[in-house]
Amino acid sequence: MNRRKFVQLVALGLAAAATFNATAASVGDAVTLPPVTLIDGTVLKPEHWQGKVLIVERFATWCPFCKVQNPKLEKLLKANKSRGLEVLALSIDKNAAEVPKYMQQHGYTFNAAMMTPEWQRVLGDVKGLPVTWVIGRDGKLKQVEAGELLDEDVAELARWL
Fold first, then answer.
1. Taking the model in full, what pTM does it have?
2. Peptide bond between residue 34 and the one before it cis (omega within 30 degrees of 0)
3. CA 85: distance to chain centroid?
4. Of 61, 63, 148, nearest in space to 103 by CA
5. Crossing angle of the two packed helices 64-80 and 98-106, in degrees rounded to 10
6. Is the pLDDT of residue 16 over 50?
7. Residue 57 maps to which CATH number?
8. What residues does 143 pair with on adjacent strands?
9. What is the pLDDT of residues 22-35, one digit of tens each?
10. Range(s) of the domain holding residue 154
11. 54 near 138, Cβ under 8 Å?
12. Is residue 88 within 8 Å of residue 36, measured between CB atoms?
């Protein structure tokens, strides 16, 4: 078994053991997304995501694994936005003022907002950072990944397009 598969199996086992949330969506479930207020004050209604593939990432500005993964998500978005890909990063930072600074400092163009109880209820409480959810064009949860995604893992997210 190669290192990547081993790491994925361990992460999957840990995530499964640590994540029981009866109200959270499971892979294959239709997801009802709440509205989101982005860090610039723009409010996106659930209709904004219709017909698109949405990658949602729970992150923190202080998370070293997020700092490695976010440039990969930015690259994936730039290469696939015209194909209907959207990225929404939901921060768990205690100081919301840090998030716009972080986004600007790194030149990220993906949508960012603060994690809210409404989004937490929909997505569940998967342990670890970052956590990545993929919601398909059909509004169903396609994939959930806990922990930093490797280059090839991020590239594989494009399969949902």
1. 0.85
2. no
3. 12
4. 61
5. 60
6. no
7. 3.40.30.10
8. 134
9. 457 899 999 999 99
10. 3-160
11. no
12. yes
For the record, the structure tokens of 122 come out as: 């929909």
Express each pLDDT in 93-135 by its tens digit.
999 999 999 999 999 999 999 999 999 999 998 899 999 999 9
40-83 pLDDT, tens digit each: 999 999 999 999 999 999 999 999 999 999 999 999 999 999 99
Q: 116 near 34, Cβ under 8 Å?
A: yes
CA gap 158, 154 in Å, rounded:
8
Say how many Å lie between the first and final Cα of the chain, rounded. 29
Residue 83 near residue 76 (C-beta atoms within 8 A): no
Structure tokens given for 72: 């990969």
Q: What six digits make up the tokens of 144?
A: 């959930």
Query: Nearest Cα to 68, choosing from 117, 143, 126, 132?
Result: 132
Structural domains counted in the chain: 1
- Burial class from Cβ neighbours inside 10 Å (0-12, 13-18, 19+) for residue 64 reads exposed
Residues in the chain: 161
